[in-house]
């Protein structure tokens, strides 16, 4: 799908004024008489997301007012002004030059993300209102971020019929070719030869055309080392612990972690960050067949730890475990995993927040500060060591699904940390889906945490 972009500057671009209720009288007083009378007659109050087009004396369009709402409304929403991209008449618009620079930057990025359409299968109608990049913003950076976000959304939104492990590999290969990255793939029975037994076990029940694989992409030849690991379960039936139909309907998004790290990788490469990047994606389909792995099986892992399978629907942590162990072998400066991993995380923080885990307080603070700056909310969760016994079943080194249902996101994170070893590590348990439309975030696949991580990279890795 085309990546949204800014409009070319035009002398006749229509002016957009972003208005808070407290500033409404001052803004109206600056308008021509006809526009001011029109705004008052329409009862425009600058409510959050409200849009009012403004006429000139001949009835033509001169611009628009966009309401920002009061402090409470702004605290409850993100990218409020960007929603206008889907409400305004066709035309080219430019923000009032007096717009606060931070608000201009947020609105410009939000405008690009609001303009996203997933139209692979049916036309969704192009956004009619185009925005000129505001003066003073880094337009190239915003384009790179929007392009990475669009890639993430496209991958998640594509149904499993067209986004199996081989298709995910093809998407990664296309990205690698675009930026001159190197890529290697270990697939099928070669996973056993390459000591990736957990990835093989989870994916072996799928057809040969949808065989499991480990995608390994590298980019950059100087700077600190960053390894991104993304869960690529292209469809999750639950395996022999079969999900009910109501829980299976959205499982095309179970590769949302892979989609998000690929989107973040695109941002990093497009911006030319001075680092050495590695992306590891275990891509599988958790299918049901006579060869499916079973509850009660004890599986070997790349790290040498044995894992008792108490639920085949807790497969994401299994495939991530081998990938994390592989990544840790090179001792990167930072390793980050992203996965649509647990329902417990959704119960804890809902679909809007990206919970994350790290043992490094400085890293947690840097990520949280960045998240606030770029309107990409995250929430730190604890690697709570007293829960470690919950993932130790006795019959094997580790349990992939402790009984009892308590602290499910935490125990999953603790499980993954065992495979990250001594590597500096952060884990994101994301949802990857926007259940209802919001400004800059249409219903469907969505990136979570990637923009926060991108903004935090200078602090996390000491980049210039």
From TrEMBL:
Keyword NADP recorded: no
CDD domains, sorted: Peptidase_M17
Gene Ontology BP annotations: proteolysis
PROSITE patterns attached to this UniProt entry: CYTOSOL_AP
First-level EC class: hydrolase
Coiled-coil spans in chain: none
Molecular functions per Gene Ontology: manganese ion binding; metalloaminopeptidase activity
Protein's name in the database: Peptidase B
Organism for this UniProt entry: Limimaricola hongkongensis DSM 17492
């Amino acid at each position: 799908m085309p990546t949204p972009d800014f409009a070319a500057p035009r002398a006749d671009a229509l002016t957009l004024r972003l208005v808070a209720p407290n500033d409404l009288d001052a803004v109206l007083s600056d308008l021509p008489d006809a526009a001011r009378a029109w705004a008052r007659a329409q009862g425009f109050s600058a409510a959050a997301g409200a849009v009012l087009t403004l006429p000139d004396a001949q009835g033509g369009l001169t611009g628009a007012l966009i309401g920002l709402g009061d402090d409470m409304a702004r605290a409850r929403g993100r990218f409020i002004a960007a929603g206008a991209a889907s409400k305004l008449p066709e035309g080219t618009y430019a923000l009032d030059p007096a717009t606060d620079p931070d608000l201009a930057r947020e609105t410009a990025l939000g405008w690009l993300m609001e303009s996203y359409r997933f139209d692979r299968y049916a036309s969704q109608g192009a956004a009619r209102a185009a925005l000129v990049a505001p003066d003073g913003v880094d337009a190239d950076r915003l384009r790179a971020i929007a392009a990475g976000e669009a890639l993430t959304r496209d991958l998640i939104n594509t149904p499993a019929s067209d986004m199996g492990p081989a298709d995910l590999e093809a998407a990664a290969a296309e990205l690698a070719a675009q930026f001159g990255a190197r890529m290697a793939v270990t697939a099928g029975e070669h996973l056993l030869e390459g000591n990736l037994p957990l990835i093989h076990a989870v994916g072996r029940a799928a057809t040969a055309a949808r065989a499991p694989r480990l995608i390994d992409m590298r980019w950059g030849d100087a700077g600190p080392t960053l390894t991104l690991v993304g869960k690529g379960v292209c469809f999750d039936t639950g395996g022999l612990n079969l999900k009910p139909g109501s829980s299976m309907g959205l499982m095309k998004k179970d590769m949302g972690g892979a989609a998000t790290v690929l989107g973040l990788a695109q941002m990093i490469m497009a911006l030319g960050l001075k680092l050495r990047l590695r992306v590891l994606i275990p891509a599988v389909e958790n299918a049901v067949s006579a060869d499916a792995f079973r509850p009660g099986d004890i599986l070997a892992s790349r790290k040498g730890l044995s894992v008792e399978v108490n639920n085949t629907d807790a497969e994401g942590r299994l495939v991530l475990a081998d990938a994390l162990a592989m990544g840790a072998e090179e001792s990167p400066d930072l390793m980050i995993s992203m996965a649509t991993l647990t329902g417990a995380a959704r119960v804890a923080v809902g679909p809007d927040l990206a919970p994350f885990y790290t043992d490094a307080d400085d890293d947690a603070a840097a990520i949280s500060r960045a998240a606030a700056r770029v309107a990409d909310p995250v929430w730190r969760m604890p690697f709570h060591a007293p829960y470690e016994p919950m993932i130790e079943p006795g019959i094997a080194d580790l349990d992939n699904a402790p009984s009892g249902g308590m602290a499910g996101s935490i125990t999953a994170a603790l499980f993954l940390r065992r495979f990250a070893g001594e590597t500096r590590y952060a884990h994101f348990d994301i949802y990857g889906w926007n259940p209802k439309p919001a400004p800059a975030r249409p219903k469907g696949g969505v990136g979570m945490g990637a923009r926060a991580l991108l903004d935090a990279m200078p602090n996390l890795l000491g980049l210039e």
